[in-house]
Design brief:
The chain is mainly alpha-helical. Helices cover about 80% and strands about 0% of the residues.
Length: about 110
């Protein structure tokens, strides 16, 4: 298995676990899992960029809504949306920008 594929698989497993834990565990326990998914997709190179964006979205939801750290979540989303635009993923950037605006309006 290639390094890229292995990182993608690890990131997907971690993201799915994070999503499942969001409803059953405190957010301070779940955020590190979400950040691990982001990091795993980071290792996946350009092929992991879309999955990384989704992992960032989940992490921002936990951080902004679960932990009331909207400023940190907004910073995370701003950086990730810019990265998506550079990777020519405008739809992913739009999703992240929309969540960023929602957190700013709270």
């Amino acid at each position: 298995m290639s390094r890229t594929r292995g990182a993608h698989d690890t990131g997907d497993r971690t993201r799915r676990r994070t999503t499942a834990f969001r409803t059953s565990r405190p957010p301070e326990e779940v955020l590190p899992q979400a950040e691990a998914a982001v990091a795993a997709h980071e290792e996946g190179g350009p092929q992991g960029e879309l999955a990384r964006a989704e992992a960032v979205r989940v992490a921002a939801l936990i951080e902004g809504n679960g932990l009331d750290r909207a400023a940190e979540a907004v910073a995370r989303l701003t950086a990730a949306a810019a990265r998506c635009r550079r990777a020519e993923l405008p739809e992913a950037a739009h999703v992240l920008d929309t969540l960023r605006r929602e957190l700013l309006s709270q």
